[in-house]
Automatic annotation (TrEMBL):
Molecular functions (GO terms): peptidyl-prolyl cis-trans isomerase activity
UniProt record similarity statement: Belongs to the PpiC/parvulin rotamase family.
Domain PpiC: 120-243
EC annotation from Swiss-Prot or TrEMBL: 5.2.1.8
Alphabetized InterPro entries for the sequence: PPIase_PpiC, PrsA_foldase
Record keywords, A-Z: Isomerase, Rotamase
Catalytic activity reported: [protein]-peptidylproline (omega=180) = [protein]-peptidylproline (omega=0)
Enzyme class: isomerase
Protein name: peptidylprolyl isomerase
Any one Pfam family match given in the protein's UniProt record, by short name: Rotamase_2
């Protein structure tokens, strides 16, 4: 009889609620009674904090806060500091992906501070420019006219259009209607292939000027093409882009120095990694 009564009580939701509530109360009681050192218990809102709080307000509202506004913000700052300290004391920052990412971002920034350095001398800049000349080379530029013959043009139809353009018949009277541009001016390889499909630029003989060539296939069918002008690849002289090259060198130098700083930090640790090959085969 007594055993059944005990089992019945243990199944009561109210008893469960009281038990869990007691655990929560005990936890907070232990936290409130947690001994703290005198220095840890000191929370000073110094002049630097006050200036920062006031300036943040001014940056938003374009004026200094009133006494009441300042008091409210200081109270909010104190509450935030208390909660942060207590969270750290409870270890709530441990294994938190968001906090880890934020800390990494801060260290990533710190390792890159003061890594740009002074501009390079002429010899260093010239060596960098020559080693990276591809970055300062202009793409070739082509201008051409095209006649679209559709997707199912026969050899006879192609020959007929070729004869017509050679005899001076206006190109707008030839071919089939299309939304493709009849003339593409001052275009790079990327622009040509974006308009007609990958490989169309390479299919054009850009050295064959003012002569109709084809048939040339595109993603849209058959074309005849006449190249009006072609400007080959050109490397921009260093003197014309000296400022840009200097900035590129400084950026690369900063990235190299930053990577070295991170490597120096890693060198402080004895990194031991477990064998993960087995888990990759599961």
């Amino acid at each position: 009889m007594i055993k059944n009564t005990i089992l019945k009580l243990l199944r009561e939701p109210l008893l469960h609620f009281i038990f869990v509530g007691g655990l929560v109360f005990a936890t907070f009681a232990a936290l409130n009674e947690r001994p703290v050192k005198q220095q840890e218990n000191l929370l000073v809102v110094d002049n630097a904090d006050l200036v920062r709080i006031a300036e943040q307000f001014r940056a938003t509202w374009m004026r200094l806060p009133t006494q009441d506004e300042m008091a409210g913000m200081v109270d909010g700052f104190v509450q935030e500091e208390v909660l942060v300290r207590e969270a750290l004391a409870l270890g709530l920052d441990q294994d938190d992906a968001v906090i880890r990412q934020r800390l990494r971002q801060k260290m990533d920034f710190i390792t890159g501070v003061n890594t740009v350095g002074a501009p390079p001398d002429e010899a260093v800049l010239k060596a960098y420019y020559e080693a990276n000349s591809a970055d300062y080379t202009l793409d070739p530029i082509v201008t051409f006219e095209q006649i679209h013959l559709g997707t199912n043009a026969t050899d006879a139809q192609i020959s007929a259009v070729q004869d017509a353009v050679r005899n001076g018949q206006p190109t707008e009277e030839l071919g089939v209607p299309t939304l493709l541009p009849s003339t593409l001016r001052g275009s790079t390889r990327a622009n040509v292939d974006r308009s007609f499909g990958i490989g169309f630029y390479d299919a054009i003989d850009v050295t064959l000027l003012e002569l109709w060539q084809g048939p040339i296939m595109s993603s849209f069918g058959v074309h005849l093409v006449r190249v009006e002008s072609f400007e080959p690849t050109e490397t921009v002289p260093l003197e014309s882009i000296k400022e840009r090259v200097t900035q590129d060198w400084q950026t690369q130098n900063a990235e190299t120095e930053k990577a070295r700083n991170i490597q120096n930090l890693r060198a402080r640790y004895d990194v031991q990694v477990g064998d993960y090959s087995a888990m990759l085969t599961q």
